[in-house]
Every structure is written in C-alpha cells, then in structure tokens.
Amino acid sequence: MDIDIGIEKNDRAEIAEGLSKLLADTYTLYLKTHNFHWNVTGPMFNTLHLMFETQYTELALAVDAIAERIRSLGHYAPGTYAAYAKLSSIAEPDGVPAAQDMIKQLVEGQEAVVRTARSLFDVVDDAGDEATADLLTQRIQLHEKTAWMLRSLLE
User: Fold this and answer.
1) pTM of the shown model
2) Residue 16 phi, psi dihedral angles, 5° rounding
3) Domain extents in the chain
4) CA-to-CA distance for 28 and 59, rounded, in angstroms?
5) I need a surface site. Which of 90, 110, 118, 141 has the fewest CB within 10 A?
6) Which CATH class is domain 9-153?
7) What pLDDT shows up at residue 14?
8) CA 34/CA 114 separation, integer angstroms
9) Are 97 and 105 a contacting pair, CB within 8 Å?
10) What dihedral angle (degrees, nearest 10) is formed by the CA atoms of 152, 95, 63, 118?
C-alpha cells in the first residue's frame, strides 16, 4: 500500500538514508559505551561503570526510536554490523583504552552523533517532516548534554 503522510517519496528516501547514518552512529556508540562499561578499570571504576551503563541503556532505547522512524517513512532500517560499519562515522576502539581515553572517545562519539543528526535538518525542514525534526532535536539535546558531562571528567 502506498504511503500518504504528506512527505514526498523522494524526501522520505533521503530522510531515511540520513536516519540510517544516525542509527549506525548511535548503535556504534552504544556498542562502544557498553564495551567500555565492561572493561573500565582504575580509581574511577565505579563512577564510570555506572555512568556508562546509564548511557548505553539510553542509547539502546534511541536505536529503537530511530529505526522505527525509518520504518514509519516506508524504508527498512539497517540492522547488521556490516551495514553499520559502512554507514557510521564513529571508529571502533583498538584494544581496551585507559579510562581517560575511554572518556575522550565517548565525547568524540557523542559529538559525532550530534553532527550526524544536525546534518539532516535541511532535508527534514524542506520536507515538512516535523516528527523527524522532533526526534533529531531530542537526540541533539541529549548527546550535547552527555558530551558536556563526559568532557567535565577530563578537566
């Protein structure tokens, strides 16, 4: 059945493509954060272990919301590591970094997600896709706040 939600087919495709990149970045950041949760060591272990758990739990919910928005636009959401590796702007870590490096990498990952989300606004605005704009705004606010909190640990 055709989709008639007031957003043109080609706009829905372009938005879904951008959201797929956002999904890949978010999932890659989720995996990195979960990895660091498991493997952090040092004097800040308990603080970072709990903080990373809070962050990866939020990211797990976010990937679902992003994927469901892609589906609402009539496209399939990517869902494999291979697809995410091609689409994501976030690098996976080599080995197990020290706690300070984990924090730095997570700041960079949070900021990468913000940049990816922000890059979609022109097409979303032009298409009149308020639902995706709302999702993007929520994601940007959360990732900017999380990046700030993580950066504060590095000072």
Assistant:
1) 0.96
2) -60, -35
3) 9-153
4) 10
5) 141
6) mainly alpha
7) 97
8) 19
9) yes
10) 50
